[in-house]
Design a protein that fits this description.
single chain, alpha+beta, Nuclear Transport Factor 2, Chain: A, 2 domains
């Protein structure tokens, strides 16, 4: 119910509009005070709940937005902004710490351009209210001196910890993806 109210606004509007339409049909058949109140309540809900849904940002939505921002930072080569989103105890799947990872990322983004990353198929899970993981697909083009890969498909898992109402990335791990030539971060960050 929580996801319907706050994260799936289109489905919410469809459900509310269906209920309002049914209320309208019943009210048109017999205009009783009860049916008038039900119709009024359904119309108020149809207008107000989507507005409330747009105003509320759930933890799941915050994590997805952070992942999209990180994708834009990679596209723009903004390593410092990526660094600000990583926790101090950040590590990779090959146990690199934050500093080592950022150095390799900086070198890689100097040699290669990542263009138009598209992230989708998010699966966000919460281990606790302050710890989460997000697995998602990423598509992008990669250009280098002797390399061009269009629509490179990868799958990732990022883990997060909430610190003072801000989500920070604690780890990054590439996941096996069908048709992807990459098996680990070492394949991406030389």
């Amino acid at each position: 119910m929580y996801a319907l109210l706050f994260e799936r606004i289109v489905l919410l509007v469809i459900v509310l509009a269906s209920f309002a339409f049914a209320s309208l049909v019943l009210w048109a058949r017999a205009r009783t005070p009860l049916r008038s109140r039900v119709l009024a309540a359904s119309l108020i809900a149809l207008v107000s709940l989507p507005v409330v849904s747009l105003m509320v940002v759930t933890p799941r939505e915050r994590i997805i937005r952070l992942c999209h921002r990180l994708g834009r930072y990679v596209d723009d080569g903004q390593v410092e902004r990526i660094a600000a989103a990583l926790s101090e105890d950040f590590h990779t799947d090959n146990n690199e710490d934050k500093t080592t990872f950022l150095e390799r990322l900086r070198r890689t983004l100097t040699d290669y351009a990542v263009d138009q990353p598209h992230l989708r198929r998010f699966d966000v899970t919460f281990d606790s209210p302050d710890e989460a993981a997000a697995a998602f697909d990423a598509y992008c083009s990669v250009r280098g001196e002797n390399v061009y890969r269009d629509r490179l498909y990868t799958r990732w898992r990022l883990t997060f910890r909430r610190v003072s109402d801000r989500w920070l990335v604690t780890s990054v791990e590439p996941l096996p993806a069908p048709l992807s030539p990459l098996r680990g971060l070492g394949d991406l960050l030389p």
